[in-house]
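Appendix B, example 12.
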Amino acid sequence: QVQLVESGGGSVQAGGSLRLSCAASGDLKNRKSMAWFRQTPGKEREGVAVILTGSRGTRYADSVKGRFSISVDSTKNMVDLQMDSLKPEDTAMYYCAAKGSATLSLLAPNYNYWGQGTQVTVSS
């Protein structure tokens, strides 16, 4: 089992920054890929960024490339998402996710473990 707890959401003006954190615990073999997703009402959950906890390989959605950065601190069991140059369209509930296979997938059905989410609101 894996437990994930997100923190760091909030409200910010366009152009600002936020840093989301995900505290992870549980079996390491189920945390080989860690990702951030986001969702707005009525829309499907969208993959934002993923990192492999072993090789530190990363992949980003086109909509956030150059603005968001995902990182993992194995000593602290934390996965962070640094979000810069935020836009109103980044407003969403953000979720941390984990899976046991080491692939750079940004598809929600591939992930087995989810946090409860943290809200990010960007105003214009």
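The two ends are 40 Å apart (CA to CA). The mean pLDDT is 96.
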